[in-house]
Amino acid sequence: MTVLVSGGAGYIGSHTVRQLRSLGRNVVVLDSLDTGHAQAALDTPLVIGNIADAELVNQVCGDHKVTSVVHFAAHKAVGESMQNPAKYWRNNVDGSARFVDALLHAGVKQFVFSSSCSVYGTPAVVPVSEAAPIDPESVYAETKAMTERVLRWYGVTSGLRSVSLRYFNAAGASLDNAIGEDWTHSANLIPVVMKAAMGMAPPVQIFGTDYPTPDGTAIRDYIHVEDLANAHVLSLAYLADGGDTIALNVGTGVGSSVFDVVHATERIGGVTVPTTLAPRRAGDPVSTYSDPTLVRSTLGWTPEHSLDTIIETAWRWHSTHPNGYAT
Ligand code: WQD
After folding, report:
1. Which of 14, 57, 151, 240 has the most CB within a 10 Å radius?
2. What is the pLDDT of residues 129-178, one digit of tens each?
3. Model's pTM, two decimal places?
4. Ligand 1 residue neighbourhood (C-beta within 6 Å)
5. Count of other CB atoms within 10 angstroms of residue 104
6. Can you identify the CATH homologous superfamily of domain 2-171+222-250?
């Protein structure tokens, strides 16, 4: 009864692995370490390899008696996906399909998938429910939408049951400061703000201050990585109880602006965050935050942590680990 976690040495993956193990679950991590860190997996069994390597996946499933999977392994840089789409089709879509093929051959049919709210593109209505149209605006987002469809078809043809979790903006670090985000692989707002606040990066560019929002900056749904990890734990339980294939938005339902993040960092860190005003960034929705009704009713999931806790844990992690996992 082991859970195989692909990408379990990555940011959200490592937090999910820790929660599963704290609950007494057996876990094995498969990670290429392209962007993951062996240290993030702590003492969890780690197999270094690629999800598309069918022979390796089969061997891991046999050796560890794998019965369910959480699939994080993917390339996730939106900008890069538009510069090098082939890299994203190959790894995120074809790699995932090969991964599922190998799992099915090993008899594994319970699958939790790391999807993204970016499958909705710019939502016409907020809060965003699962009924919103799928309308990706980047190659990265398209690979997430395509993989969800691949999983649904494997449900029709092979009895795979899956939960696709459409993340909003994951941020923060573990509550005990043992693991956190590697800011060298992230251009996301919160690590960027932290780095600038610590004088380790140029001032934060505020992408647009003329939006029709209370303070003129764009609004997002920031969700603590521990809350997000818990949604994966509950998804495995849902599938173990016979739950059917489903896609769920995973966000707090609370929208916070760019300036909310900057000001919370200044208040909590006791610093001034150097900023510079910049034009709007192409493709950015003015506002997007989740309607958590379905994830709450399906999994019994509710977020525990506020934006302040996100900033507090992120600040503590980055200020004590300025070089991430590098010693
Ligand atoms: C957040 C806000 C920017 C950087 C991300 C992932 C996406 C999905 C959802 C998982 C925006 C502003 C940012 C900066 C800024 N998650 N910003 N200056 O674009 O909402 O999407 O979460 O799959 O994959 O990319 O996240 O952190 O880039 O931006 O003003 O230097 O902060 O304009 O309003 P985004 P982000």
Report:
1. 14
2. 999 999 999 999 999 999 999 999 999 999 999 999 999 999 999 999 99
3. 0.96
4. 78, 116-118, 167-169, 188-189, 192, 204-207, 218, 220, 258, 281, 284
5. 16
6. NAD(P)-binding Rossmann-like Domain (3.40.50.720)
